[in-house]
Design goal:
GO molecular function, one term (chain A): nitrogenase activity
Organism (chain A): Acetivibrio mesophilus
Number of strands of chain A: 16
CATH architecture of the largest domain in chain A: 3-Layer(aba) Sandwich
CATH topology of the largest domain in chain A: Rossmann fold
Helix content of chain B: 40-55%
Pfam families (chain A): Oxidored_nitro
Oligomer: heterodimer
Number of helices of chain A: 20
Structural class of chain A: alpha/beta
Strand order of the largest sheet of chain B: 11-10-9-12-13
CATH class of the largest domain in chain B: Alpha Beta
Number of strands of chain B: 13
Helix content of chain A: 40-55%
Largest sheet of chain B: 5 strands, parallel
Distance between the termini of chain A: 27 Å
Protein name (chain A): Nitrogenase
CATH topology of the largest domain in chain B: Rossmann fold
Largest sheet of chain A: 6 strands, mixed
Keywords (chain A): Nitrogen fixation
Largest interface: A-B, 70 and 75 residues
CATH superfamily of the largest domain in chain A: Nitrogenase molybdenum iron protein domain
Chain lengths: 506, 445
């Protein structure tokens, strides 16, 4: 990974992850086969003969972009594109107001391309929408999110944005996230960062102020030398941010949190940092790679601070960079000792419970390690996609040779088959996939929440506490499972759960 | 040509089609579309539909061909055929219904021909529902029209006591199932059997034989009309359109219109109205103490779809004795549809004449309110539009706070309430609505 080149910013859109990372979206089998497949790059072309709907890059791009404060989103597409925002409109405001009590709710405009536009082009409507956004809301940024239809009819979104930029105050950010282009939903992260880098970061640096004397300059440089950009993700909570900030501040570092829930202006200072700290390589490699390329800012990328072991490694890696290894070692030992004391009663309650996990590759693997540490037995895992970043984390999970691995974005039919036969005591899963496990009667622990703490040391305690609570009474799901059924024929559960996956070279 | 929409309260034709098919018993939709379509649609359905959930085979379980660059370049019919056959192998349903997204239509895939080729008779259907064809309501009409013309049997003998009723769009009307239950019961009160297709205890068999009905009642002047025309063409069944009824004034009119169209006698009609009124006012009477003691009359602003705004305004004006000031309809409508709707807001018994505005944009609501009622320029005495109540969707919560009005989400999207078997239609629904509105007024106690 160290030798990967990040030089894509002259293009209007980033490459898809199928090409850039040889990522895989369809697989079922053992962890060894998965590891080997990824290393050889032979899982790249796998596909399903039966498939269910899944998120696209536009949907996931919005999940991040919706969090940006003082911005208006323009979804360029037919009237349904971006409609999923209806789900997030209400809570988005609440989360933004945790950062700024005056923050406005989520505003998005759909350009409403109709049949005639699909033939004659939609640039005029896009212009109208951008001008409306400027006049009506006076935002700091107008973020244009491009969908499939205008990409096919050849709307020149970049030119529209360039022309209008001369006339309006808001910065126009273009994000090319046409859903049909990539099976790997996480390509969205690259699309979003690509738009941010091109329109808000590079060439937009806040001018360095004139220093009165060397002392002032020295102070500014000292601050910069202790400043880290902590890159958050839209699936984490405000309390996660506070916990990670607490840990880094304990090392004497100054923490700036981006990109979620920040304002467009915040990106103008991003280069004033000594280190970029990612909490998820799947989320950030494209961003930190380019920032290194342009500003020579080093980065920490490979660990997610979920679970004691991974959090410790994350803290030590960061400390190492600042020459604070000893201080960090003391901190880590203290935190681990205190936390382990607090975990004792939960470890007793959770010992030997079996679990199946589903979610993003990095989060799933880190959570598996966390749960093993609590005494649970991991029967299997499902990652939304898989690439070298996940492959590197596999060794952190014990007994992984005995587990089943499913790589699937959504595709609950494979999971339903697996769960029916594995019969775990608890299911840890992703939004949208949880309902199917619940209808099978399993207790469900959601693998992410924007409302509760999951990361850092306090996060481990919260996970243990919540998991223990959820397991205390599963009556609701049990009742439901007796009176509803999943849409599959009974015979499906007798089949190989991965029978519809093609060319995975088994 | 339409314009952009600021925070649309509907999704695309394919979204409406998914919601419609999910609401039918024994049907599994197959999306021939880009991967994100079904996912995005499902978020909008669940998150705006009072947490209606994924249902039997919705949400992330929606079968979808998930076309990518390869199919966009080389065509996706082969992939669709594979997806249909595999879906029929794994997912259990009486009917499989293929619906298409924008991309596959733009590259010229012909889903209808693929389905014809596969020759699965009345188990497999297809319709073009590309998102650029229109919004959710359009998808409802497309699916119903298809089922009426290809699934419903022709040549059946008419049943003089059977009618069909629709025009209540699943999910876009968040209380569709409850509302259909109430309306069905009302028409049964006139002595008829009623198919509503999407209501409780409805079966596909009933839908298949719905051509036996002697009349189609479309409880809307805006939604389900194309489907009624198709039904008329194929099965020669007449249809009437009626206003969506809420409360005594709306529902008595509904009963009279439907009764008259069916040739029911005045005695039957009046007896039914009398019976319903007795129960209605028997309960409504309870709130008189609170209404009078605390002065619970309110100015009202109503923002939402064509069906509900009409029914709600009549209910507030003529049943509750409130003061509807401003009505904003957010639908995408043709000029003639607007003209037709305008007439619905001017004949109240109370004599109240609310202003009616057609505007699709969420940000317009506050602007219209400020224009409609003179803003406070700080004179010593100012007659403000207070106390006020804003009935709309979750989107209007913020606007309500800005004008210091109380608020209830009734129309799509409803993201701040869970809706199960609730109904707002008819006499029965009006009681529930009264409970909900007055509970908001009294929640600080």
């Amino acid at each position: 990974m160290e030798n990967r080149v990040y030089n894509y910013l002259n293009e209007k859109a980033p490459p898809v992850r199928e090409d850039r990372l040889k990522a895989c979206s369809a697989f079922g089998g053992s962890c060894c086969a998965l590891s080997e497949g990824i290393r050889k790059g032979c899982l790249n072309g796998t596909r399903r003969q039966f498939s269910q709907t899944q998120g696209c890059t536009l949907v996931l791009s919005l999940a991040i972009l919706n969090t940006v404060r003082n911005a208006v989103i323009v979804v360029h597409g037919p009237i349904g594109c971006g409609g999923g925002n209806i789900f997030f409109a209400g809570i988005s405001k609440m989360f933004k107001q945790l950062r700024d009590p005056k923050a406005e709710g989520l505003i998005w405009i759909n350009t409403n391309l109709d049949e005639a536009d699909s033939i004659s082009g939609g640039e005029a409507k896009l212009k109208e929408a951008i001008l409306f956004a400027e006049e009506e809301f006076r935002p700091e940024a107008i973020i244009v999110v491009n969908s499939c239809v205008p990409a096919i009819i050849g709307d020149d979104v970049e030119s529209v944005a360039k022309d209008l930029q001369k006339r309006i105050a808001a910065k126009i950010v273009t994000v090319h996230c046409e859903g049909f282009k990539s099976k790997i939903m996480a390509t969205a992260y690259d699309s979003v960062y690509h738009g941010i880098l091109r329109n808000l970061v590079i060439g937009n640096e806040k001018p360095q102020k004139d220093f009165i004397d060397d002392e002032e300059r020295y102070k500014a440089e000292l601050v910069k030398s202790k400043t880290v950009n902590l890159l958050n993700v839209s699936s984490m909570s405000h309390s996660d941010e506070l916990e990670l900030k607490r840990i880094l501040e304990a090392l004497g570092l100054k923490v700036r949190i981006l990109p979620c829930y920040s304002t467009p202006e915040d990106f103008e200072e991003i280069h004033e940092a000594a280190l970029n700290v990612s909490i998820c390589s799947t989320h950030d490699d494209y961003f930190v790679g380019h920032l290194k390329e342009h500003y020579n800012i080093p980065y920490i990328l490979e660990t997610i601070p979920i679970g004691i072991e991974n959090t410790n490694k994350w803290v030590l890696d960061i400390a190492e960079h600042f020459g604070l290894r000893q201080e960090a070692q003391r901190l880590v030992e203290y935190e681990t000792r205190e936390l382990n004391k607090a975990l004792e009663p939960y470890k007793k309650a959770l010992a030997n419970k079996t679990v199946f996990l589903a979610g993003g590759e990095i989060r799933v693997l880190a959570t598996a390690e966390l749960l093993q540490d609590l005494g649970l037995e991991v029967l299997g895992m499902k990652g939304y996609h898989f690439d070298e970043f996940g492959e590197k984390l596999i060794p952190t999970v014990k007994n992984n040779d005995k587990m089943v691995f499913n790589i699937a974005t959504g595709q609950p039919f494979e999971q339903s088959n697996l769960l029916k036969n594995l019969k775990p005591d608890v299911y840890v899963g992703h939004v949208g996939g949880n309902v199917w496990a619940a209808k099978q009667g399993l207790p469900v622990f959601p693998i992410f929440s924007q409302a509760v703490n999951y990361m850092g040391y306090s996060g481990v305690f919260e996970v243990a506490r919540r998991l223990n609570r959820i397991l205390k009474n599963n009556s609701f799901n049990k009742n439901i499972s007796k009176h509803t059924r999943l849409p599959y024929y009974d015979s499906w559960y007798e089949e190989d759960p991965f029978k519809y996956i093609e060319n995975q070279g088994k | 040509m339409g314009k952009f929409v600021d925070r649309p309260k509907y999704i695309c034709a394919m979204g409406g089609a998914v919601a419609t098919l999910n609401a039918l018993p024994g049907v599994v939709p197959i999306l021939h579309a880009a991967a994100g379509c079904g996912f995005n649609i499902s978020n909008a359905i669940n998150g705006g539909g009072g947490y209606v959930g994924s249902g039997y085979c919705g949400g992330q379980s929606l079968p979808s061909s998930n076309v990518f660059e390869k199919e966009i370049v080389f065509g996706g019919e082969g992939r669709l055929e594979q997806q249909i056959l595999s879906t029929m192998e794994i997912a259990e349903a009486d009917i499989y219904f293929v619906i298409t997204g924008c991309m596959v239509e733009m590259i010229g895939d012909d889903a209808v021909s693929v389905v014809k080729r596969l020759n699965k008779g009345k188990r497999l259907f297809a319709a073009d529902t590309g998102g650029f064809r229109g919004n959710s309501y359009k998808g409802y009409d497309i699916v119903l029209s298809k089922l009426f013309s290809e699934y419903v049997q022709t040549g059946l003998e008419k049943d003089e006591r059977l009618v069909n009723l629709w025009g209540i769009v699943p999910v876009q009307d968040v209380y569709w199932k409850g509302n259909l239950r109430v309306l069905k019961k009302l028409v049964e009160g006139l002595g008829y059997k009623v198919n509503t297709f999407f209501g409780e205890d409805e079966t596909l068999e009933d839908l298949k034989e719905s051509s036996k009905a002697i009349l189609n009642i479309v409880v809307s002047d805006t939604y389900g009309i194309d489907a009624a025309k198709t039904f008329k063409e194929v099965h020669d069944t007449d249809y009437i359109t009626t206003d969506f009824p809420i409360g005594d004034h709306g529902t008595a009119r509904f009963i009279k219109e439907v009764g008259t169209a069916l040739g029911a006698s005045n005695e039957v009609i009046n007896a039914l109205i009398k019976k319903e009124r007795k129960r209605y006012y028997g309960y409504l009477e309870r709130v008189v103490d609170a209404y009078s003691d605390f002065d619970l009359q309110r100015y009202a602003v109503i923002v939402g779809d064509a069906n509900y705004t009409q029914g709600l305004t009549r209910f507030l004006s003529d049943d509750l004795g409130w003061l509807p000031e401003l009505v904003i309809i957010n639908d995408l409508l043709e000029e003639e549809q607007k003209e037709f709707l305008r007439r619905k807001f001017s004949d109240y018994e109370s004599g109240i004449k609310p202003e009616l505005v057609f505007d699709t944009d969420a940000s317009s609501v506050l602007k219209h309110i400020n224009r409609h009622w003179e803003v406070n320029k700080n004179p010593r005495y100012y007659d403000s539009m207070t106390p006020a109540f804003l009935i709309g969707s979750s989107f209007e919560k913020e606007t309500a706070q800005k004008i210091k009005a109380q608020h209830l989400s009734v129309m799509y999207p409803v993201s701040n309430r869970v809706v199960l078997d609730r109904a707002y239609a008819g006499f029965e629904g009006a009681l529930t609505l009264t409970e909900d509105i007055f509970s908001v007024l009294l929640e600080s106690r």
